[in-house]
Amino acid sequence: HAQDKPKEHADGPAAAYEPSMTTLGQLQVEIPGRKPDDPVMTQEEFQKATQIYFERCAGCHGVLRKGATGKPLTTDITRVNGYEYLQSFITYGSPAGMPNWGTSGELNEADVDLMARYLLLEPPAPPEWGMPEMKNSWKVVVKPEDRPTKQMNSLDLENIMSVTLRDAGQVALIDGNTHEIVSVIDTGYAVHISRISASGRYLFVIGRDGLVNMIDLWMEKPDTVASIKIGIEARSVETSKFEGWEDKLAIAGAYWPPQYVIMDGATLEPLKIVSTRGNIYDEQVYHPEPRVASILASHYKPEFIVNVKETGKILFVDYTDLKNLKTVEIEAERFLHDGGFDSTHRYFLVAANQRGKIAVVDTKEDKLTALIETGGQTPHPGRGANFTHPVFGPVWATSHLGDESVALIGTDPEGHPDQAWKIVDNFYALGGGSLFIKTHPNSQHLYVDAALNPDAEVSSSVAVFDISTMTGDTETDPEFKTLPIGEWAGIAEGQPRVVQPEFNKDGTEVWFSVWNAKDKESAIVVVDDKTLELKKVIKDQRLITPTGKFNVLNTQKDIY
Ligand code: DHE
């Protein structure tokens, strides 16, 4: 019986694993090892638990379990809370964003038991990943000189959607005009994002396992031309976009080891690896795992904007001289996560999600512009949504993971100085557990998902606001329509979540992923933005666990 498991402590042979002490100068340090009351775990179980932790937990709680989006799970805490607490938390989740791994069926009872026991043990130290490892993993599949010199297919490349097929370890390229799958390409596991080179030719994707694929859209059938593994766990990739530097460089950020790497933009040859380990911006205390979260390419300077989660620093990395690397390090806020530009592309807004704040930096002056409390719990904008509010002028919007609120921030210091970098309105959408919000310059609608809401009906629907009817009366919430996207998909089995609205290139259609379990049917639902009616349900056996979708033109030009 699972509940009895914690009592199954090691005895007898445990003595052999007793923690030993050694003296390092004056310092007493404990060599990591087994503690006398550690739960018993075979090497096989430990291996399996480490794999599950890596795939499901490390993203929020950190490889070293020091916490970020999720709570810290170091043994000083887990051992006080105890096995039963962990087991129930993993099973049922929490409204603050911890998924219900047990009741959702994603982990079975034995796995939940295994993970609860695993968390009582010290985390294993993961290996480093430096230049030798990167070079070893680096492959140029088609050399630049052997690639096409013009577009060899008749696709409308600007309207291609790169769709993550999460659990299949693939991306699907879907034609935005015909809604047909053009090709399915093997990538790393659970590709997190897709980015497009400044010219619009190359597509870069990065797997959770740190594998970057560079895909040439000019090939008759677009495919990988180079790949490299830049770390053990990663989330972000980007390419240089400043004038004169188009397609020249690429950058990828790793969660583990905490570092970023700048690569050649034609071959992915790794050129420069920079560790982000260092001190937390305010406490000035060393952190061993400051992970690289979002990365964007500046339009104002030859710089990458690199967001370092745990130390709360935003780095402007000047990529013109890698041998004499210049970096402006901005003190922002801890737990930086995701963000995007304002409509002018001069300001970058990023969520310090566990601190309930948005940090704004000026990419022209390389300075912190503002730190704004959103009033909601755990802002989670994706790249956010820019639109012109009828009363407040240009705003950027975020939704929240921890509650149902949407916050609008004024982004026009010239035209609307009173509203600039303030929350101008805050209103309710469908429910907590929102991951992404989206609009388009050609649309009058603001779409807000609630993908992680515990209620299946809410998590499979989307809220739509009509921007033109927003009155600016902060006392009354604007009304919204609820689109039953999951229902429209007509999927009989499972509990699919509806995630990440993404527009086609003209801003006339908005696409949603209906993300079901790996062994169940999923779909992409296309909605007509004008009428808010269903336009198309894309279903295909190859569409396994679709999550993020990235329109080539919108991603290339940072339109959102
Ligand atoms: Fe994401 C963006 C990290 C969970 C789908 N996610 C990002 C970014 C980061 C990040 C740092 C910004 C990248 C950039 O702009 O350069 N995501 C993390 C996590 O650490 C977290 C919380 C936990 C984890 O274990 O990974 C996490 N993310 C998820 C999911 O569960 C999602 C829904 C599905 C999945 O693949 O795991 C998911 N994240 C996405 C998507 C984007 C994203 C689709 C890009 C949105 C956009 O429109 O830009």
Automatic annotation (TrEMBL):
It is found in: Periplasm. It catalyses: A + NH4(+) + H2O = hydroxylamine + AH2 + H(+); nitric oxide + Fe(III)-[cytochrome c] + H2O = Fe(II)-[cytochrome c] + nitrite + 2 H(+). One of its GO terms (cellular component) is periplasmic space. Its EC number is 1.7.2.1, 1.7.99.1. The keyword Oxidoreductase applies. Its cofactor is heme c; heme. One of its GO terms (molecular function) is heme binding. Keywords: Electron transport, Heme, Iron, Metal-binding, Oxidoreductase, Periplasm, Signal, Transport. It is an enzyme of class 1 (oxidoreductase). The keyword Iron applies. It comes from the Bacteria. Pfam families: Cytochrom_D1, Cytochrome_CBB3. Residues 44-123 form the Cytochrome c domain. Homodimer. This is Nitrite reductase.
